[in-house]
Amino acid sequence: MLALLCALALCTTAACGDDGESAVPAATPTGSDGAALTRITFVNKDGDEIDLLVEVADTPEERARGLMFRESLPDDQGMLFVFEQEGQGSFWMKDTRVPLSIAFIEGEGDIVDILDMEPLSEELHTPAEPYLYAVEANQGWFEENAIGIGSAVRIARATPATATPV
Q1: Backbone φ/ψ region at 47: left (φ over 0), alpha (ψ -120 to 50), beta
Q2: What phi, psi does 128 have (nearest 5°)?
Q3: Looking at the chain, which terminus has fewer C-beta neighbours within 10 angstroms, N or C?
Q4: 26 phi and psi, to 5 degrees?
Q5: Which CATH number characterizes residue 54's domain?
Q6: H and E: helices and strands count for the chain
């Protein structure tokens, strides 16, 4: 399993084909606000691989803004938050209009908690365990795809504004 997690998985869809090999360059997909999207892969409880296209928030400013002020989020998209070190900081939904679920992921790529968050709420959502990454998707997306605590995510170790293979 560790070898699976050590594979570079944060690749733009323009640079990686479905098999992870180089593909002919194509237009990089963008989110509703024009940000470039990156594909990450979850391995659910049945061993199935489920892809999600995410915007990467790896600077303090991007993490603070998150998905605020959006009217909608496509079903197959979300946001990946990358932090400098593991911690247990809280998330809230102030100024976020879309109901979301958030998966907290430790440094080796295992989900340690998943929480549902209601739009425009200032309730703090704190995971049970420290995390290095967090992924927001439409509320219920993780459950619908049989992704739960302990599921793996292929994410390269990253520091803000960089992504380096484990």
Answers
A1: left
A2: -75, -25
A3: N
A4: -135, 175
A5: 2.60.120.1140
A6: 3, 8
